[in-house]
Amino acid sequence: MVPERKNTFTEKMEKQLVLLSLAFSLLLSTAASVREISSRVCSSENQDAKYQFNSSGIHLTLHHPLSPCSPAPLHDLPVSTILTHDSSRVSFLEARLSKKLSSRPNSLDGSPNLAELVNAPLTPGTSVGVGNYITKIGLGTPATSYVMVVDTGSSLTWLQCSPCVVSCHAQAGRVFNPKTSNTYHSVDCSASECSSLESATLNPSSCSKSNVCIYQASYGDSSFSVGYLSRDSLSFAGSSFPGFIYGCGQDNEGLFGRSAGLIGLARNKLSLLYQLGPKLGSSFSYCLPSTSSTGYLSIGSYNPGQYSYTPMASSSLDDSLYFLKFSSISVNGKPIGCSSSAYDTSTIIDSGTVISRLPSDVYTALSKAVVAAMAGAPRASAYSILDTCFKGNTAKLKVPSVSLTFQGGATMKLPAANVLIDVDDSTTCLAFAPAGSVAILGNMQQQSFSVVYDVGASKIGFATGGCH
Question: Vertex 175, ends 173 and 181: CA angle to 5°?
């Protein structure tokens, strides 16, 4: 019997299904290959992103918090969320300078167990750390590597510790267990480091019934860490620094993605910089990378000839933060239209604030100058805290040259990526905002520059081409 011939329509449908199936298989295979390549590149990058220790000091690799190659990336975070948390950080800094910080109650005093008496008035679950960069440190004996957030606005270094008496957030890698370190010691309440906590954390210390000093570190969006002040060996590339003071966190809520904790680099004797200073010197430098590259954090000596400098300004409002002063801003080589007195205010330089905040008159003049220079670009509606926006994206627009000049003549000539921020696929905005009570040079403008903080010489330096 001769088989019945299929009709033409059925044959066409079957052929299309076969072709679709082959195309879908090819698409899946290609996507898998891309993922494998990306994974290999990131894996290789992370393997190379190890700390180094040599005669010039310590050199750590820095990752952008949104980089896919970060050891603790914050995936798929919309710009609106970043700006919301950025505003929280700025509000925290403003409250800090106005001395209106709220702190935890002293209910920890005399506590034999953190779990019994911690009753935080702070709301967990959010993060002020979406703008902070990521690196790794080694802690304990034998040393174990931990992913940490880097913050020039904080003094005390801390990380999550087992047994997490109250709470630990999810982190990359295992939580540090003090019992596994041969060099771990808790710090007594009578120790001078315990007395120094309030200047480092802006919160009073407490004391357990077993005479262990308790620290309390709270941040701008109601995130916090509470735990035992401790001492252990800090290590980099086989070289150790014994007796390092840090917080061993037992209640850590809302902080910093999947990092283990925070490295404090502020001007305080409990900060990482000051503790390592006797061996390495009182300076550190960094290059904050974009999402597609890596940067560095170095503690120790640097090449002074490559930088242009501005004096490190002082402020009676807070002696642990880093301040500088603007002298002028220009757009396409022309100074913006505001008086020199408009710049006469101390500005915080901060690694964790994303968007720079300028004095109101200065910001208004900069906005007008950028709009005039981009006269051919169609305007877009304001986006969150950003009110000078354009249709399109940075790569396709003719972005004017913006130069920031500081007292002493140090100048940052910003690349386009440091002037505008793409908030979505079809909108870009000027990456500055008007200041409230505090002016801030944020990390969006610092990105790709080498920045050195020479605390001993009381100066801050800038150089181009530090990273990409």
Answer: 115
Which sign does the torsion angle of CA 391, 394, 396, 399 carry? positive
Q: How many CB atoms lie within 10 A of CB 11?
A: 11
Q: Are 270 and 278 in contact (CB under 8 A)?
A: no
Question: Of 136, 111, 107, 131, which is closest to residue 119 (Cα–Cα)?
Answer: 107
pTM: 0.85
Distance CA 13, CA 287 (A): 58
Work out the burial of residue 311: count CB atoms within 10 Å of its CB; fewer than 13 is exposed, 13-18 middle, 19 or more buried: middle
Residue-wise pLDDT for 407-461, tens only, equals: 999 999 999 999 999 999 999 999 999 999 899 999 999 999 999 999 999 999 9
Catalytic residue, candidates 86, 151, 251, 318 = 151
Question: Are the CB atoms for 257 and 72 separated by under 8 Å?
Answer: yes
Rounded CA-CA distance 424/409 in Å is: 36
Cα angle, residue 351 at apex, residues 426 and 430 outer, rounded to 5°: 25
Q: Is 76 a catalytic residue?
A: no
Question: Cα separation of 171 and 263, whole Å?
Answer: 15
Specify the DSSP class assigned to residue 212: B
Report which of 63, 62, 465 is spatially closest to residue 303, judged by C-alpha positions.
465
Q: Using an 8 Å Cβ cutoff, are 147 and 176 in contact?
A: no
User: What b-and-e string marks burial along 430-449, b requiring 16 or more CB atoms within 10 Å of the CB?
Assistant: bbbbbbeebbbbbbbbbbbb
DSSP state of 306: G
Q: Which residues pair with 236 in a beta bridge?
A: 239
Closest residue by Cα to residue 290 from 415, 153, 452:
415
Q: CA-CA distances (angstroms) from residue 411 to 305, 405, 439?
A: 15, 4, 17
Contacts of 72 (CB under 8 A, 6+ apart): 134, 147, 171, 172, 257, 258, 259
Distance CA 135, CA 72 (A): 9
| Active-site residue (options: 86, 221, 251, 350) | 350
- Residue 71 vs residues 64, 65, 171, 288, 340: alpha-carbon distances, Å: 10, 9, 10, 16, 44
Q: What is the pLDDT of residues 289-341, one digit of tens each?
A: 988 889 999 999 899 999 999 999 988 889 999 999 999 999 999 999 899 99
Identify whether 350 is a catalytic site residue: yes
